[in-house]
Amino acid sequence: MTTVPRSALISGASAGIGATFARHLAARGYQLLLVARRADRLHDLAAQLTEQHKVRCEVFAADLTDPASPAAILRYADEQGLNIDVLINNAGLSGKTAFADTPWDSLAGEIQLMVTAQTELAHRVIPGMKERRWGRIVNLSSLAAFAPPAASLLYTGIKSYVLNTSQALDMELKPHGIHVTALCPGFTHTEFHDVMGTRDKANRLPGILWQQPEAVVAEGWKAVQNGKPVCVPGLVNKISVAAMKPLPIRLAYLAGKTLNPFKNS
Ligand SMILES: NC(=O)c1ccc[n+]([C@@H]2O[C@H](COP(=O)([O-])OP(=O)(O)OC[C@H]3O[C@@H](n4cnc5c(N)ncnc54)[C@H](OP(=O)(O)O)[C@@H]3O)[C@@H](O)[C@H]2O)c1
User: Which residues contact 73 (CB under 8 A, 6 or more apart)?
Assistant: First the structure.
């Protein structure tokens, strides 16, 4: 009897951590459905992974700020006969301008991308996972979820939402054979800071604070396999979380106000 390989849907697979997850899972025999806006990049990666690992690799180009995208992605998966066993909810970015100066459409797009679409994708794949009594969901949160609040950014609030709801979902779904992990990287070498427009400031941060995406994904996937609801990859990031946790509220506010390396000034 031949067994069908498991399938993983990865959002934000055209770069950085998402593309790294695609390579990591393809090497482990997963079929992939790659999602992001840049179709050319997704097709190049899919061709590379099919050639290297002989795995099926489908592409669906979608803008996740469009509220219609999550349903369209899963309709496509259905049409292709792909049961989504693993969901890597990874697509994301950080806004860079002050809240009050940013057009509402941009802010709404950030919320749609990293809150609503992420939550909807999970909601849409869970029934199938429950039926098959197996599923793995990785939601990309961030070290920012533990950090003091940062002026002007929705990002810390959004990533706190992801951290919190991932744990709640994990509690609800573990009895059904589904593990949910909030992966909370610190500074990671990807295109994130180029998109955010903070590359110069990021480059001035000490090298010890940075990780390669391969290290983040390897530790993240290990946490998933071990059923851990939260993974903070890297020793320096773990120490940072431990140091930030006991901060009294007023001190956290002050630290957020003074230490944020990306604040608009
Ligand atoms: N790098 C870090 O320091 C860091 C730290 C903590 C957490 N994270 C989180 O890790 C995740 C991945 O980020 P990364 O560092 O790998 O950044 P990245 O290299 O910039 O990759 C971001 C990915 O998200 C996709 N994306 C962005 N907007 C999208 C949209 N509207 N619709 C569909 N896809 C979209 C991008 O693809 P297209 O542009 O082709 O659409 C790209 O594939 C994010 O959730 C981020 O918040 C990153």
Answer: 9, 33, 35, 60, 62, 121
Average per-residue pLDDT for the chain: 94
User: What is the residue-wise DSSP string for 18-86?
Assistant: HHHHHHHHHTTT-EEEEEES-HHHHHHHHHHHHHHH---EEEEE--TTSTTHHHHHHHHHHHTT--EEE
Residue 17 CB–ligand 1 contact under 6 Å: yes
Query: How do residues 233-247 score in pLDDT, each as one tens digit?
Result: 999 999 999 988 878
The answer to whether 141 touches 182, Cβ cutoff 8 Å, is yes
Does any ligand 1 atom lie closer than 6 A to the CB of residue 163? no
Sign of the dihedral defined by the CA atoms of residues 91, 94, 99, 102, in that order: negative
Structural domains in the chain?
7-259 (3.40.50.720)
What is the C-alpha to C-alpha distance for residues 151 and 98, in angstroms, rounded to an integer? 8
Hey, which residues does 89 pair with through a beta bridge? 139
d(CA 140, CA 163): 8
Contact assessment for residue 76 and residue 83, using Cβ atoms and an 8 Å cutoff: no
Q: Is the pLDDT of residue 265 over 90?
A: no
Residue nearest ligand 1's atom 9 by CA? 140
Q: Give the least confident one: 12-16, 67-71, 95-99.
A: 95-99
Could you report the per-residue pLDDT of 177-207, keeping only the tens digit for each?
999 999 999 999 999 998 888 899 889 999 9
